[in-house]
Amino acid sequence: MAERIGILSGDLWALRGDISTLTGAEVVRAPATIARLDAVLGWAGPAGALARRFAALRGVPFRAVGRGPLRSVRPGRAALPTSLTLAGRA
């Protein structure tokens, strides 16, 4: 059975296909899912505070993701990152 990773962030949810490909995990929307979660994925730094708290409440590991060295092709907050950095086992 594939690992199930919960995502709270709308930004990361938009990247769920890429995250699933990178991790080999089933990516589910949290906290909407009440099913089993093996980990919670959230942004590194202060932006991931809610995901960290949610993971602690669920008793599962928090896995941080950050924008990689290649930011985005177009400038601006709405632009999706060109690369991602995953911390920990994800």
- What would the average pLDDT be, to the nearest integer? 81
| Helix/sheet category | alpha/beta
Whole-angstrom Rg: 13 Å
SS field, number of helical segments: 3
Order of helices and strands: EHHEEHEE
Number of strands: 5
Most strands sheet: 5 strands, mixed
Overall geometric form: globular
Strand content: 15-25%
Strand line-up in the sheet with most strands = 2-1-3-4-5
Question: How far apart are the termini?
Answer: 15 Å
What proportion of the residues is helical, as a percent range?
A: 10-25%
Low-confidence stretches: none
Layout of strands and helices, then pairs:
Blueprint: E1 4-7, H1 10-13, H2 16-23, E2 26-29, E3 39-43, H3 49-58, E4 62-67, E5 84-86
Parallel strand pairs: 1-2, 1-3, 3-4
Antiparallel strand pairs: 4-5
What does this structure look like?
The protein is an alpha/beta fold. It has three helices and five strands. A five-stranded mixed sheet has the order 2-1-3-4-5. It is globular and about 35 Å long. The chain starts with a strand and ends with a strand. The mean pLDDT is 81.
